Amino acid sequence: MGLPRSRPDGVTPQPKGSSLLCTLPGSSSIGSRHPHGSVGFSTSLCVPTDSSDTQNNQESTKRKHHSHPNSTKLATASLVLGSPQYFNRGTVDSSINTGPTPPRSNSTSQSSKPQFDCVALETQILKNKGFSDAMISTMRAARKSTSARAYYRVWTSYKQWCLKHKMNFDKFSLPNLLEFLQEGVSLGLSLGSLRSQISALSILFQRRLAFLSDVKTFLQRVAHVAPPFRKPVATWDLTLVLKALQRAPFEPMKSIPLQWVTWKTVFLIAIASARRVSENSALSCRTPFLTFHSDRAVLRTVPTFLPKVVSAFHINQEITIPTFCPLPANPKEAALHSLDLVCALKFYLHRVRDIQKTDSLFVLNSGPQKGASATKTSISRWIKQTVHRAYVAQGVTPPDKIKAHSTRGMSTTWAFCNQASAEQLCKAAMLTSLHSFAKFYHFDTFAAHDTRFGRKVLQAAVGSST
């Protein structure tokens, strides 16, 4: 759904600096404990008033707006133009990615569209509560930039939806909200995506939308229509990949191309640490963030990195990488030693020494940015390439839809099957409990064990044949 060429619906031309009195209910959804109620404020609206805009606005005042009896007026004064960098138009985003999300249509030419400034809108919402500029800056920093961009995309999509259906964007209406969510269901959005949209719109309208009885009922019904199914079996085989890493083209590391050394090292760290790609991208090659010992290497993320959960435990957690068959005594142990991550890490650092332009552990190994810090996107691509190339090297068709994040589930699952304790699992993957592991990361890697029950039943045929 594209943005129209005119201003947002229902906004009348105002002289610069004119005031609009609006009300917002209090909420704690963005960290405030302001009591529920109305907050009066006045603000400025900067809108061009050319003839075409005036005509379009006159037409918009004739439109019939659908509203809820308990609707809440949003700060229309915050619908200003500018700041296109804060959102990507045309896509409904989710902070919980459970599958591909069909984009909402975007038919209007981007060059002719006004920009919806979500940052200004959120700032105005906080100003309405009486917060100072310094406090607003701190409040906005409480949410990670990726989450903020995801929320802003939802706000933009909801605004576009309101314009398309001639609904009033500046007021909260429960029927409008549910219709917007229903369109997402029709487009194939997952239950997690819908919950993310509700969270984003809760901040926009300063209401705890997820607690409304009709919203609860709607989500319960969606769970029946589109149940949150998760594939129980991993899409790729860790044993096959590790077997491939012990031979060409991933060996010998002292002579293979740097690209292959990078792929192998990144993959082994992802598997051995069970950490997220974002954490691996924040590792450093400098002391004290990387320390080698006789039997292990200890890594730490840089102080500027903020993990998904910002706490003293998560920020200061070390990644300890052990040696593996450090003194091989036979060919089998020699092959296993090729998976020694401490050794691989030393090889990698030696190979990138002459091109490294940053303190980041992982750097780009080719292209115009050669030697610069590798982004999360690059590291994710390297992990997927490693799995793909390993399958090709083994003469096996690579699986579809390999996800770099699957290394967390694969790593913790194999550790669990090999008798790793609950404490070890939770500490390595930085999980709060085994429930999180079972819900999000556990794969059924030993499904063949469950065949024993069926075989016991079928053994009845053995007795009947005698």
TrEMBL record:
Disordered: annotated span:
1-36, 49-71, 90-113
Q: Where do Polar residues bias regions lie?
A: 15-31, 49-59
Recall the GO molecular function terms of this protein's record: DNA binding
InterPro entries named among the record's database cross-references:
Integrase-like_cat_sf, Integrase_recombinase_N
Q: Does the keyword Secreted apply?
A: no
List keywords of the entry alphabetically: DNA-binding
Instruction: Please give the biological process terms from Gene Ontology that the record holds.
Output: DNA integration; DNA recombination
Q: What's the protein here called?
A: Uncharacterized protein LOC121393347
